[in-house]
Amino acid sequence: MTAMKSFFTGSLLLLSSILFAQGLDQRCTQTGQSACVDWDRGVVMAEGLGAPASSAKNDAQRNATALRAARLDAARNMLEMIKGINLSSSTTMRDAMVQNDTIRTKVQGRLFGLRPSGKPRYFSDGSVSILMEASLRQTIPKEALSGSSSGEAPREISAPSSSTTVSSRLDPGRVYTGLVIDARGSGAQPAMSPKIYDEEGNELYGSAYVDQEFVQKHGMAGYVRDLEQALANDRVQGTPAVLKALSSSGSNQTDLILSKADADQLRSLADNLNFLREARVVIVLD
Fold first, then answer.
1. Cβ atoms within 10 Å of 59's Cβ, excluding its own
2. What are phi and psi of 203, to 5 degrees?
3. Given this model, what pLDDT does residue 72 score?
């Protein structure tokens, strides 16, 4: 009977994990076994599974101990997911936490203090499944992002010289509401602080161009998997400019490269680039 009970419990937990993972694929850009990152909303989500303590003497104690175990499991799953997050093209959260104990302590403290984001699911064997959700911008300390931010004041993107030929796909006189970069096929990966360059290595977009108030509220960019979804995204909704990334760069493949022609198109909008200063950028990934 004990073996049968253990098998049944394990089967329930496995089924729960499978169903949860299927749900994550629907909602998230980056997924793990029991956690995922919704880069568009800027949140990390995780499932926790817990069993009641063997020492529990009644239903109340069994529920309480199972719930506590589930919360700890969710926090650990979320922590592992966060460690893999790219801060920039060369740095991950794992790197930052290894190099700085303050960052590691802050992240762990914030995660292990989280409450479930929905109602727990109780199973007949006493085990519990919960979901937890945390904002990336509230969970990842500013110290972790300082290495990927130059700390410079926002800079203007200069217009191209008169000898430069600009494609007619973007209208220099038009006021665009955001920028959509189609990075499908480039191998690009999401990051907290991505940058956009032209083919010659000139930076077109990065933390130095953005008002930090907007970054704190919305992050540097949103990430989605579908171009139509990107065009309808609240972040850029209206008349977004759309450009295609040639490739991605950096060891983490998080920075995007635009062709010279497309980079010149973006520079031609120099008088109407408030959308970049407000981080109204959405990147479409595979």
1. 10
2. -75, 130
3. 95
* Beta bridge partner(s), residue 73: none
Q: Which residue type is seen at 161? A: S
CB 223 within 8 A of CB 190: yes
Q: Are strands 35-38 and 255-258 parallel, antiparallel or unpaired?
A: unpaired
- Cα(197)–Cα(243) distance, rounded to whole angstroms? 12
The pLDDT confidence band at residue 28, using thresholds 50, 70 and 90, is confident
Instruction: Say which residue the tokens 């970054």 belong to.
Output: 215
C-alpha closest to that of 86 among 178, 195, 226: 195
Question: How far apart are the C-alpha atoms of 286 and 276, rounded to whole Å?
Answer: 23
Tell me the residue type at 243.
L
Q: Which pTM was predicted?
A: 0.82
Pairing state between β 281-284 and 222-224:
parallel
- Calpha distance 278→286 (Å, rounded): 25
